[in-house]
Please model this.
Amino acid sequence: MAGCSIPKFLCLHPESSVDLEKAIVSKCMEFRLKPDDDQKILIWKTFGCNRFLWNHLLEERISYEKTNKGKLLNTTPAHLKKDNGFLKEVDSLSLANVQLDLNQACRKLFLKGKVPKFRVKGKDRRSYTTNSVNGNIEIIHKCDAENYIKLPKLGPVRIILHRSIPDGWVLKHVTVKETASGRFFASLVFDAEEKRKDPLKAFSVIEAFDYSMPELLVSASGENSISPEEIHWYRNLESRIAKEQRKLSRMEYGSSNYWKQRKRIGALHEKASNRRKDFLHKLSRKVADAYDAVIVEDLNLSDLSRMLIFGKSVYKVSRQNGVTP
Model:
């Protein structure tokens, strides 16, 4: 047809096997890990090495940026391994991911005249990411109740596979993290092939929602009403958390009892968080299955949560999963 050009990504060779009706999407599944004592120590060492590498590379980039405006220093962890042999004990791919994350953070913030924050021991996020390369990560099935995941440096780690992994999914990378209660989890990211879905041309069933602080949301039809008692996950545990925090305040920082008490407090916060996530996931699934389109109020809950009188009320229903622009 005259005057009509074909996009480059559609100019395929006649013998090409690319299926335009399918797309590669990323899928994430999270499972509980149960490492032994030696594996826990190595995981904690990896957290510490990642924090050490982040702080040292960030310091180098800040000093370099002061004398070379507009240029980004891109050094690898190799030069730090010469004087710090403990970096060789942990997974090298986790250190490489720290470098990539820092590069991305510097590109974003240096342009705004800001710098990324240094990571502080005991306050940073306890997690690290490693990539799947040449079969270095694999799931080992021994029986239905006993499964392992082989991770670099750690070897086989006990994993609780509460869901089956579909055939054809390709593992890309794994993030190992420790929660405040001392539990370990692994987030597995896969590349999966799915059929492309045609968007709906007409919406037959539509629902509108408005944000409500006491009830989380109010629906236009009234069929999705929520009672305030259903969303008081944090309020119901607030007195227990306050009691445990008073005990923590009287303990010596860094002692064994201090860290045990911190895990008890973390377990209470985690319980409230798990209840919140479970409720919101079930609610979102119910709404997604019942309606073709959903209309929500345009509110910036992040700014609303910063107000002195609204902060706790907004956070208790999770501002990240709430009604945001």
Observations:
- The chain is about 35% helix and 20% strand.
